[in-house]
Amino acid sequence: MAAIQTNGLTKRFGEDLLAVDSLDFTVEEGEVFGFLGPNGAGKSTTINMLLDFVRPSEGSATVLGYDAQRESETIRSHIGVLPEGATLYDRLTGREHLEWVIDTKGTDDDPADLLEKVGLEPEAAERSAGGYSKGMQQRLGFAMALAGDPDLLILDEPSSGLDPTGMQEMRDIIAAEADRGTTVFFSSHILGEVEAVCDRVGIMNAGRLVTTGTLDALRENLSLDSSISLDVETVPDALVADLENHEGVESVTVDGSTITVSCAATSAKYDVVTQVGAATSVHDIVSEDTSLEQLFNTYTNGQQPGETVVDSELDEAETETEVSA
Amino acid sequence: MSTLSVAKKDFLDVRRAKIVWFVGGLYTLFAVLFFYLGQYNNPNPDVRYQLFTLSSIGALFIPLIALVAAYLAIAGERESGSIKYLLSLPNTRRDVVLGKYLSRAAVVSVSVVLAFVVGAALTVLWYPDLHIDVFASVVALTVLFTIGYVAIAIGISAATKSRSRAMGGAIGFYFVGNLLMIFPGLSIIEGLDYLFNSLLGLGVSDNVLEFIRMLSPTMAFVQSMALTIPDDLAGVQAEFSGDVPFYLEPEAALVVLIAWLVVPVALGLWRFSRADLG
Question: How far apart are CA A159 and CA A141, in angstroms?
Fold first, then answer.
């Protein structure tokens, strides 16, 4: 059973705003799925439809096998949610928030355990949430999501408002929950945080899901140049010509004693190194991976040739995932 | 039950809101003032007259307490986004509306009953007779009226998505459903009379117009007050009696008042359960 599955999920606001455009994706049980995209891409609207805050114009979705609209209450008793842009109740203390959540979910969590998990001081939990910093609010929200040991965590921009330490702690908690077998679905417009924890990502842009797959698969399927630089003793002319003719090499540039080779696939790098090593002595090798930033920008800035290509890339990426899984 | 869990948490929250206690306290002050004036320099005071005066002040004042205490119940949470926490838990939208209704009705009723408890204590102190039967039925009717206005505020709050719209709705209702119904010279009914009879010549009877007036919660409350007045209390009774059709009897007014406990909440829930909470 899929943790989340959408079928042609579409949301229009009014006549002309197409916030989410026929979305089809599946999040498998037990995986950590990063839902990426710039602000306004339709991520939150999608999550809002999964939680029945917003009703789809067309299509449908299931969460943990239950229909997102008809069986929303059942879904919400099995999941934990950290909503985006939601404020807490100013007049209630942190502990009262947790007691309320535990009471509503009908579980037997100890508020102290939940507070410890998210790194919120017990003294802070006795104060009313009106005086909390953004980071404390986010931690309390996370503690509320963790109550009742949910099968699925839906986290909408979990790191918003957190400092770098807080973001790291948040990632650690997500990883710990994932290790316990919890499926995690979280959205983000910050790329750094997905790389460390996600099994798979989906990238949304302008209401459409432009691609899904593992980060490796996405990197490979995008012919972004993956380059390697070699610092060498001498640069023989014949070597440059040989390298340029080599299969998988896109371009060769020489700057003084440094040869930079741009490869279509990472596998070509080894050939490049052996070939250069045979011709001259090598002082240093720097291999550059495609940065996630670059990957993300390529998908969301319209650098890709067109929608048809995007769709085929999507298919390829999905295939890669299945192979690697 | 989720409705109760919503109500419990909301009660915890709203009882810490100072504004609710402020308006409730103001009503108590009114009560003290009236009970004091009723016996001041009066050798043989009758508390029942004070009760009826207090309820006519209540007709203007209680809607304000109820509207202030409840107009933000749902719309405020939609604006701040905390409704997402509420609905991320296994609560249905019906649980939210009914739970909020329950807790706000409890808070406002408690503050109104408190005013009467203070009034009862002063009555025992200052008046020869508490008239417990009249006292109790006036309290019961006033609480009914209070909850009716909480229902209206909850209905408005459930149907609107922001603080400002909910406030506009509450103020609008206060004018149209309350002020413009009470004062005969300034009443909407005068306008309807002019429209139906003078302009269109439909010949709508005064009784029908009076019934339209009684459809407002405040007039339903004022008219049903006759039920609490014993026959021996002349003077007050005359004001309400007369040869009227059944739909203008105090019992009919009571039915209208009870309908106000249900209809606004049902309409608000109908709107809210279809709304997109973006």
Answer: 11
